[in-house]
Amino acid sequence: MSLRHALLGLIAELDGASGYDLLKVFEISLGTVWQATQSQLYGELGKLTDTGLIEVSAEGPRGRKEYAITDAGQAELRHWLVETEPKPHRRDEVMLRVFFLDQIGPEEALGYMDRMIDALSGRLDELARLEEIVPWEEEGGLTGNGRLTMEYGKRFMAMRRDWFVWARKQYEERRSGAGTGG
Amino acid sequence: MSLRHALLGLIAELDGASGYDLLKVFEISLGTVWQATQSQLYGELGKLTDTGLIEVSAEGPRGRKEYAITDAGQAELRHWLVETEPKPHRRDEVMLRVFFLDQIGPEEALGYMDRMIDALSGRLDELARLEEIVPWEEEGGLTGNGRLTMEYGKRFMAMRRDWFVWARKQYEERRSGAGTGG
DNA sequence: CCTAGACGTGTCACATTCGACATGTCAACA
DNA sequence: TGTTGACATGTCGAATGTGACACGTCTAGG
């Protein structure tokens, strides 16, 4: 269960963040690699506080609670980072559909691939635009890792787009091959 | 919820498959894009049968049940494939850790990246070996899509490995830059 | 005959996740 | 003064997923 560790890491980096702040980070910055809903987040903050891995370091207006990581939390974060191995948890709906593309007509299958190629190209454009806007040299915050993640995002989208272009070509070749041959 | 549709698609392609057979497919062939545990799978087969999307087409030795897709199931599968859009559900523990690599010492951070590079290289070797062994020209089954998935797996692993190599270099440059500069 | 191992189905308790709902505060502006 | 919208925290039920357990059958080989 990594939401716990995502929160722990975030609180360690962003000192004095509230649940609301953290939610924004999940939406914007961390969202590429890990997602969390609001109810999940507040629930987990409660559990982490109960377990003593984080603590409420200050309270602000509107019931705002600012969190800080405790020594126990730091130890747990470190343990997770250096002593446990990540297990890839593969679950990809886009690729799952590709698996069953035989089940629908060729027009629709090609349509699906075209839509995916368009969507991925769009995402790549967005990323390129975003990269120009973001103030990379700014102090504090996650921009160091943000840059790495941004590059990963770009490579990932490009790889997928290129694969779809290739798969589409394969599909058409198989199709025309079966048509003229046999 | 895509497990339902993964099963539906599989039963449509592999006629007369049992739960046990399907489990093998998840372990070997489909595992790259979608995972399922045994308890999940049998549970879902029961639900699909109750809903009338699949039916038990034959019973074999050892209580074996063979499943077939019904017209309603075919319609549902088709609906899912052509009329709904996949929502990417990003959750990647390996990349999540990268986000928090600042939290540990440089030796350990570089160690993590090296381990990832090794692991990915290993996976790529495995895939190359597997590709030579698999009888691609065989009739029936998933080899058509298997080939697409195989290529995707190769590109995905290679992309990640290359990214880690790049990120490692970035990390070292930032480190020595901060050390000699400033 | 016995037994190991593949084949085969199923349940149960627990944890995690999701989406919707409920509640309230503070600042800005008409 | 009223109201809009960002800030802010929380609960609840239902769906999903995980790992362990429980049970029974058929085949090959010692």
UniProtKB/TrEMBL annotation, chains A, B:
Stored InterPro entries: Tscrpt_reg_PadR_C, Tscrpt_reg_PadR_N, WH-like_DNA-bd_sf, WH_DNA-bd_sf
Transmembrane regions listed in the UniProt entry: none
Coiled coil: none
Matches recorded under Gene3D superfamilies: Winged helix-like DNA-binding domain superfamily/Winged helix DNA-binding domain
Pfam family, one: PadR
Sequence ranges assigned to domain Transcription regulator PadR C-terminal in this UniProt record: 91-171
PANTHER family, per the entry: TRANSCRIPTION REGULATOR, PADR-LIKE FAMILY (PTHR43252:SF2), TRANSCRIPTIONAL REGULATOR YQJI (PTHR43252)
Protein name: Helix-turn-helix transcriptional regulator
